[in-house]
Amino acid sequence: MPKSKRNKVVTLSKTKKKGKERKELIVNSIRQAVDNYSSIYVFSFENMRNLKFKEFREQLKNTSRFFLGSNKVMQVSLGRSVADEIRPGIHKVSKLLRGDTGLYLTNLPKEEVQRLFEEYEEYDFARTGSTAIEKVELKEGPLDQFSHEMEPFLRKQGMPVRLNKGVVELVSDFVVCEEGNQLSPEAARILRLLGIKMATFRLQLVCRWSPDDFELYKEGLDLSDVESS
Questions:
Q1: How far is CA 138 from CA 154, 164, 189, 190, in A?
Q2: Which CATH superfamily, name and number, covers 21-123+201-226?
Q3: How confident is the model at residue 10 (pLDDT cuts 50, 70, 90)?
């Protein structure tokens, strides 16, 4: 017998999706920030770590504002050409918002900004798919850093281990990763267990805009990269 449509359960709660309103809010926030801060920077990042970035942002919250998200939305906020830019020359900033980049707006002197970004560097454990920066090889013999309870887990990661009188032991040499190769999920887990950090979270300045000036910082870029089309 077919189910009665009268008995159909209807969910009254609604989930608000990110859409046009969300994009408009970001656009308006960026445009307001342009009015409030004297300089705008594009920065690129490697090995983003959200918690570390949040801490860095908190340190500068009294003088600065960061924006991360859709490059296209940030470009629209500033204007992508001379015809629609919100300030003279600011479309050059939009053209450099590509890949892993963000906006940094601040009232700090440019020398202070350069120092902060150049000195910022945080080390962390590499994730699956990251490139190994060195070869890590474990030699045959006891692994005293691991308790006997870890033996089954290590074996699941592909390590040739056994218990010898309650001590975890490698029965043969084992290469965790090779320099230049991508890390497998197993290799990333083993490196974490070994306490070996191969990822460096960095922020690099790409360019700076102010009402009176425009500068490029990143090597390999020149003014032809930001010429209006």
A1: 13, 17, 15, 11
A2: Ribosomal protein L10, N-terminal RNA-binding domain (3.30.70.1730)
A3: very low
